[in-house]
Amino acid sequence: MQQDTTGRPFLLAAYAFAVAMCGTTLPTPLYQYYQRQLGFSPLMVTVIFAVYAVGVIVALLLLGQVSDSVGRRPVLLAGLALSALSAACFLFERGLPELFAGRVLSGLSAGLFTGTATAAVVELAPRRWAGAATLAATAANMGGLGSGPLLAGLLAQYAPDPLRQVFLVDLALVAVAVVGVLLIPETVRDRGRGAALRPRRLHVPPSVRPAFVPAAMAGFAGFATMGLFTSVAPSFLSDVVGIGAPAVSGTVVFVLFAASTAGQMLMGRVGVHRALPWGCVVLVAGMAVIFASLLAASLPLMVAGAVVAGTGQGLSFRAGVTAVGAYSPPERRAEVTSALFVVLYVAISIPVVGVGAMAVALGLRLSGLVFTACVALLAATTAVLLALRPVESGAGAG
Description:
Growth Hormone, Chain: A, MFS transporter, membrane, transport, cell membrane
């Protein structure tokens, strides 16, 4: 394949990545509308959110490597088709079945896109941008995730028909992304080998575990925080802080993802082996600020907590993925990285369902306080573990 020097295919792939990820978080500021319309509890909000992670994990396990066999473009187009079907479920929603179907389809789309689009963006980057290609893929991923709540919140507040308008806009964005993917060249040369739909192995070799365990612990804490913000943060703002404006809740979630992107960019300056423990320390500080925001019912503290926690999550997440990749033998790297992402997507779902269950019995404020304390404890434990047994560079990578 002759490489395009204009950068257009690279930008089109990054745009498609951002649009697909944007679709996965669009419902965040809208859950309060569905809750009022259908009369369900905070627990049901978290369950609706959590089935998204089920879709992601299924796609990662069954289809994580399929683009290596059939090519990047067909998988990207399939992911966009699933994203459009998810938007259609929300657009024509009549009750809980459509909400659940929309979230599962959204998860399948994200599971297909995460690995495939990252590979496509890196492979399509012109040589002059090669050093920043991985970071560009990360920015497209996190930027899309953060843009979803912001876009939905603004449209819900200022456009008519808040539960329909945003998904019409999303379908238009997806349509443009489909055209963009059709215009990019295929980067996989040896196609047509076939890809069996069987679960991927999730074995982590003993030599990789010194890096995998702290990376998984730190990632679990960080992704649980992201799950909390993208599921019940609007409820916290409405019921605890007293601010129900969807534009505000969407902006708060956007701030978290923007801070995560900044933290991932910062890791290059800090270095992998300092970024992993220090990211955990920053995440603990962010949890402390969020804890204080819930006690004081303070929006400024909630925003500050999102900034600090997001930065810590970004630092530790990128450092963890990098360390695990360095430790893993090349022939096992995809397998081990998949195992790490399965842990992370379990983290994004199970804890927030626990928050929803606690909220029914104890109220949102107390359940949020318990959650932030638990995440802070896990992140602090990981930091102490890393201080006692640092991850050595290069070990086990052979």
